[in-house]
Amino acid sequence: MATINLEQWRDAIEQVLRNYAAIPYSYTQVEKETVFDRRQDPYLILIVGWEGHRYEHGCTIHIDMIGDKVWIRREGTEDGIPLDWENACIPKEHIVWGFKPPEVRPFTGYAIA
């Protein structure tokens, strides 16, 4: 079994989120912001701005590192980001789809908790 390198995982999470945040919306002036905290380990992409006459503010991606697991709390991308992390260095048995019900997680092919 490979040695777990949490700093390498943090780097991978941040790089993947930066890549997603750099993709502009083509239909709105809403911007994306990344929020990273390596001490408490939440990683977010926020949206902020105006879409026509409506102000948008919210979280499209929320990741927490808890112990030796990467918990996906919210994942609002079209393609999904776990494969990006697997390709970077995070084994799928350490990625938890936290927004999926516990009884569904065994069928995701990823960690259950």
Structure report:
This protein has one domain (6-107): TATA-Binding Protein, CATH 3.30.310.110. The chain has helices at 6-21, 82-88; strands at residues 31-36, 42-51, 54-66, 69-75, 95-97. The model has no long low-confidence stretch (mean pLDDT 92). The longest helix is centred in the N-terminal third of the chain and has 16 residues, at 6-21. The two termini are 19 Å apart. A hairpin with a 2-residue loop joins strand 3 and strand 4. It is globular, with a radius of gyration of 15 Å. Strands 1-2-3-4-5 form a five-stranded mixed beta sheet, with helices on one face. With 113 residues, it is an alpha+beta fold.
Give a quick precis of the structure.
The chain contains 2 helices and 5 strands. The protein has 113 residues and is α+β, with helices and mostly antiparallel strands.
